[in-house]
C-alpha cells in the first residue's frame, strides 16, 4: 500500500486563531479517506490546505509539511495552479459555471492546453461516464448546466474535475445539499472512482463515513483525535472522545 | 511544461498591465492638483492673495483689472443655498414617502421617474430655466432681470433633487427592519415611525446626501452659464443677474484670452477654489457616511 | 374618550403628512412634465429629416445638427474605447488582484471616491492643460474624448466593481480548483457573468458624457462648425455645445432650434438608457 499524501505536524491559522493543531496523517493511494467531526472542528479547513485553496482568504497561514508524491506541497515554489490540476476539488454546494454542460466539463482542459482539440469529444464522454451522468445528459450537452437537478449538477462538477485528470479528489461534504436519492448515487459513484483516484471526503454524516470509507479520521477542535481503518475506528475506537462522538453522545 | 511557463508569464504581464490601468485614476488626481497648484502659485506671484480674498470687485479683463473673488463666491453660494432650499426639503420628502409610505407598486413607478429626472443633461435644465422658469418668475415679479439667480437656482434644485431623494432613501432603507417593527409594535403611526425613529437613525446618511447635493450645485456649470447671467455681483438679491465661479470659467474659455496671460490664469485660480470647496464638502460627506456604516 | 380623540388626531396627522410627502414627489413629476412639454411644444415643429441632415446655419430656417450629431458619435465612441478598458481593468485589479490591506488599494479606493465628486468643469481644466497644451493634441476630438474618459472613469470603475462583486465566490473557487490561472478564471468565468452589469453601468456613464458641455468648452470644442469631422484630430462640435450656442442667441427662432436639438438628444439618451435597462433585466434573470 503506497502513501499518496503524507501530512506531518500541520498547523493552520486564520489570523491569530489556530484552526489546525499538529495534524499527522497518511493518506493511502486508491482508498477513500473520510474525515468526520462536529462543525467547526477543522475538517473542511484541513482539505483546503491540501490544494492550498485557503490562500484565497487573507491572513491565513499553514506551517508543517504536506508531502504529495514526494514534493513539498506547502513550499512557496510549488505552483498552485499545477497543484490544483493534480488535486481536484468538489465543493459542498454544486457550483457549475453558467455555461453549457459541454463547456463546464471542458473548462479546465481548454485552459490548460495539454489535451489536443481532437480528443476533447472523447474526454467529454469519458468524464461524464465516470461521473455516471452520461446517459442522463448525452442528448442535451449544449444546454445550460443550470437546467440540471441539484444532484446532476454535483455530478457535473465531479465530471468537470475528472476531466482535468487529477490524482487526488477532495470532496467537501459533497452530498450535504442533496436529497437521499442523489446522495446514494454519488456514494455508488465513489466506489467506482477509488479504483482510479485517491479520494478524501469530508462528511457531516457518520453513517456515510462508515458506509463508504476505507480510512477515517476524527477531528475535534482543530486536532486529529484518531485516525485509522474505518472498521477499526467505528468498532473499537481507541480514544474516549471518538467513542462519545460515534455513539452520539455529543456533536 | 512550456504551457505552464507561458501561463505564468501571462499572469505576471496581466498583473502589470492592470496596475498600469489602475494608475490612470491616480494620475488624474495628481494631474488636477498639479495643474491647479502651478497656475495658482503663478497667479499669486502677481496678484496679492489678500486682494483676491478681500476685494469686492471681480473685473479681471477690465483696465485697470480687479481680482476680488468675493462676488463670484457670493454668486455661487446664492445658487447653492437657494437650490438647497428646493432639493433638500423636496428630496427628503420624496425619500420618506418612498421608504416608509409608498406601496411596492408606487415605488416601481416613481423610482424610474426620479432616475429620468437625474439623467437629463444640465444643458436641458439650463434651457428650461431660461425659457420656462424665468418667464414664470417675471409674470409674478416683473422687475426680475432676464438672467437671474433665482431661476438658475430652481433648475439646479430640481436637478439635484433626485440625488438627495435616492441617497436619503438608501440611508433609510439601511435602517434594520427590526427597529421599524419594534416601533410599529408599540402602536406608532407611519408618520411617527418615520419622524421619530427612521429619520433620526438614518440622519448621517441623510446629512451626507445634503452635502453632496450642495457640492453638486456648486460645481454645476451649464445651468448657471445659461440662466444666471454674467455679472459678478456682491449682492444677495436673487432677482438680479449674477456670476458664479463656474459661469466665469465658461465665459473665459469661450472668449479670446491669450494663453499664459494673467486673465487666463484667473480661470485656474477660480478652478482651484472650486476644487477645494467641493473636495471639502465631499470629504465631509464621506466621513459622515463611513461613521454611519460603523453603527450597523 | 380623551385617548380616542388623541388617537384620531394622530391618524389624521399621519394622513396629512402622507399627502405632503407624496406632493413633494408630485412636484418633481410635474416639473418633469413641464420640462418635457416646454421643450416638445417649442421644438417638435422644427424637427424634420432636413434638421437632422443639414449643416448649422446663421439662417434659422435652414439650420441643422448634422455635424454635431456626427461629432457626438465620434467623441462618445472614442470615449468608450478609452474609458472602458481602463475602467474595467482597474476594477479587475481592485477586486481580483490587489491585496486589500495594501496602501495602493486604499489610496486607489479613496482616490476613486473623491474623483467622482470633482466638478466636470475641473476635468476640463485638466484636459486643457495636459491634452490640449502639454501633449499638443489641440482642441480636437481626441482631446475631448480623453477628457470625457477621465470624467466618467470613476463611474465605470464603481459599476464594474459592483458587477464583479456580484459574481458568487463559488464560481471563482470552482474555477481555481480546476487548476487554471487567475487570469483564466477572470476571462473564463468571472467576466462573462459580470459583463451585463459592467455594460449597464458603462452605458449609463457614456450617456452622461453625451450630455456634457462644460468640460468640452474648456478643451476647445466649438459651438458652431460647418464641416464634418473625418479624423480624431479634427475640430468638432457636439450636440450639447450646439444647443448651448443656439440657446445663448437672443432670437426666438434659435430657441426653437435649441429645443429641436434637445429633443433629438433626449431621444438618443432614452434609447441608450433603455438598452442599459434591458441589459440589466436580462442579467438579473440569468443570475436568478
Itemize the secondary structure elements and their pairings.
The complex is a heterotrimer of chains A (251), B (296) and C (288).
Chain A: E1 3-14, E2 17-28, E3 32-36, H1 43-50, E4 60-68, E5 71-72, H2 80-86, E6 87-90, H3 101-112, H4 120-130, H5 134-137, H6 150-162, E7 168-172, H7 180-193, E8 198-202, H8 206-212, E9 215-220, E10 223-229, H9 230-235, H10 240-246
Parallel strand pairs in A: 3-8, 3-9, 6-7, 7-8
Antiparallel strand pairs in A: 1-2, 1-4, 4-5, 9-10
Helix pairs in contact in A: 3-4, 3-6, 4-6, 6-7
Chain B: H1 2-46, H2 49-54, E1 58-59, E2 66-67, H3 70-101, H4 104-119, H5 122-140, H6 149-173, H7 177-185, H8 190-201, H9 203-219, H10 222-227, H11 245-254, H12 262-295
Antiparallel strand pairs in B: 1-2
Chain C: H1 2-43, H2 49-53, H3 66-97, H4 103-115, H5 120-134, H6 141-165, H7 169-176, H8 182-210, H9 214-218, H10 239-247, H11 252-287
Helix pairs in contact in C: 1-11, 3-6, 3-8, 3-10, 5-6, 6-8, 7-8, 8-11, 10-11
Question: What do you see in this structure?
Answer:
The complex is a heterotrimer of chains A (251), B (296) and C (288). Chain A has 251 residues and is α/β, with parallel strands linked by helices. Chain A has ten helices and ten strands. Chain A has helices at 43-50, 80-86, 101-112, 120-130, 134-137, 150-162, 180-193, 206-212, 230-235, 240-246, and strands at residues 3-14, 17-28, 32-36, 60-68, 71-72, 87-90, 168-172, 198-202, 215-220, 223-229. In chain A, the strands form two sheets. Chain A has a six-stranded mixed β-sheet, with helices on both faces. In chain A, β1 (3-14) and β2 form a beta hairpin. The two termini of chain A are 33 Å apart. By secondary structure, chain B is mainly alpha-helical. Chain B has two domains: 3-34; 59-292, MetI-like fold. Chain B is 78% helix and 1% strand. Chain B has twelve helices and two strands; from the N terminus they run ααββαααααααααα. In chain B, strands 1-2 form a two-stranded antiparallel ribbon. In chain B, α1 packs across α12 (262-295), α4 packs across α6 and α9 runs antiparallel to α12. Chain B is globular. The model of chain B has no long low-confidence stretch (mean pLDDT 91). Chain C is mostly helical. Chain C folds into two domains: 2-46; 51-287, MetI-like (MetI-like fold). Chain C has eleven helices and no strands. Chain C has helices at 2-43, 49-53, 66-97, 103-115, 120-134, 141-165, 169-176, 182-210, 214-218, 239-247, 252-287. In chain C, α6 (141-165) packs across α8 (182-210). Chain C is globular. The model of chain C has no long low-confidence stretch (mean pLDDT 91).
